């Protein structure tokens, strides 16, 4: 089997209306890491001030009051300066963003097997949870409507 040092990874960007994520967000990240589901490669915070100015805050610059000191990064720097600057432009003034680069450990062996057999992933797309839930609810409502119409016929 082809051995990869890293499996598939994903840039995830979250925006917060506060100056930092809550302790619950940090706990969720730590739980995913501890369970072996993901490996946290990089984590960068961006503050976008009301006047549009931007401050980049590295993990080691954050204080430990919400558990960030418990996080270890396995490949700090993967979120490069250009990436960070582009993402900063997406943030609304007066908000804070978090850039997480996570490796999907559950998919590492699958990626190795694809590579070993000459396969390549042609497309992969993450569907955000709110979008998936809205589409699923709509599909469920349509299914129920169709079943009711069939029953009434």
UniProtKB/TrEMBL annotation:
InterPro entries listed in its UniProt record: DUF6325
Its recorded name reads DUF6325 family protein
Q: Tell me the Pfam families matching this sequence.
A: DUF6325 (PF19850)
Q: Which domain of life is it from?
A: Bacteria
